[in-house]
Amino acid sequence: MLRLRGGAVAAALVVLVMGAGVSGCKKDALGSAGPQETAAGGGGAALSAVDSLTVKGRAPKTGYSRERFGTAWADTDANRCDTRDDILKRDLEGVKFSDGKCRVSGGVLRPDPYGGQDVTFVRGRSLVDIDHLVALSDAWQTGAKYWDASKRIALANDPLNLRAVGASANRSKGDGDTATWLPPNKAYRCTYVAAQVAVKKKYGLWVTAAEKTAMKKVLGGCSGQKLPSGGNPTSAPARFHAR
Questions:
Q1: What are the pLDDT digits (tens) for 8-26?
Q2: What is the pTM of this model?
Q3: Is the dihedral of CA 191, 40, 202, 213 positive or negative?
Q4: Please, which residues have CB within 8 angstroms of residue 167's CB and are 6 or more apart in sequence?
């Protein structure tokens, strides 16, 4: 089970272990702040929410750059810690600091939700990434290119859209959506896709037809899968700017 840090609320999720021909249940926790929606029926609120998403083709990637989403790891919640350290504090166990209670110097990702193995984090070594569950490039092509900078900055720093993960598995993702990439750890796929649905719903991002089909295929096998909620507001404070 992932353990949440930094004041985030742990919510138990039922996750279907999609092994080769073997079904089972495993409890997991999504690293979002706030309550989770439930729905009647076997599929759960996450599956129901897929149908609320607009379906369109991807917009061109023209004009995309990381800088369009602001400076990386901006302290949009004004807690005097940057977003990266906030997520490390939330998701790692045995957290160590190099200065006070902000700059994380070490800890253990137990386990890496994408790869399923424990990963030790040591600052300066690239074994743990902070992943945008909905990749920023994907967001750009499904609505974010038409937003103002404040909303893009909010998405890039929203804990609902961020997870500490093992670098090895994460580097294969690129800007893939549910139709093109899923975590190698099959036991985490229900949680992962539910989080993507939650982010796209919260920010009004659309999905492609192939993405919607893939989301429903995964979540259709997740009995009672909840929809995470919470995170930060969808507009960053006015002091933050992006290109």
A1: 333 333 333 333 333 333 3
A2: 0.84
A3: positive
A4: 119, 126, 127, 128, 129
